[in-house]
Specification:
Shape: globular
Low-confidence stretches: none
Order of helices and strands: EHEEEEEEEEEE
Length: about 150
């Protein structure tokens, strides 16, 4: 897990995601005004790299769940607003659901975790197996627009 900044994306090519994938994502970020895109899925390189533009109201910690992925890494970029993402190691959690291979997700019950407070322009890189709980409000409930890049590894 790496917390960083969208404008420094090319510098994160040595965190477990192939450099050519980071380069394609950087080109995409520089070619589009992501915050102006409507919500939805945008294909960058087939099913190997795509981005999901999401907009939602943040929720309380208890209303969100930890999740992990097996096939895809996430680069979650906050475009507008602010949210907390809680992170932890998978062995510290108890399974809440079975792994869904079609959606590449498994949910977990709450456990010991660390807080990342993300603002517009910041990102977090999460590799497969790194448990994270996104969408948590930071202070009051607020609206967030986020780009979630998915990279098949």
């Amino acid at each position: 897990m790496v917390k960083g900044y969208m404008d420094a994306l090319p510098q994160y090519s040595q965190v477990g995601i192939p450099a050519e994938c980071i380069e394609k994502i950087s080109e995409y970020v520089n070619s589009w005004e992501l915050a102006a895109l409507p919500c939805g899925k945008y294909v960058i390189d087939g099913e190997r790299i795509y981005v999901s533009i999401q907009e939602y109201e943040t929720k309380s910690y208890g209303d969100c769940r930890f999740e992990t992925h097996k096939r895809y890494a996430d680069i979650q970029c906050i475009l507008q607003g602010r949210e907390q993402i809680w992170v932890t190691e998978q062995p510290l959690l108890t399974p809440d659901t079975e792994y869904d291979p079609k959606a590449d997700i498994r949910f977990w019950k709450a456990g010991k975790a660390s807080l990342l407070d993300l603002h517009a322009g910041e990102l977090v890189i999460l590799l497969p197996g790194e448990a994270h709980k996104p969408c948590v409000r930071s202070g009051d409930v607020g609206k967030v627009k986020k780009a979630v890049f998915k990279i098949a590894l």
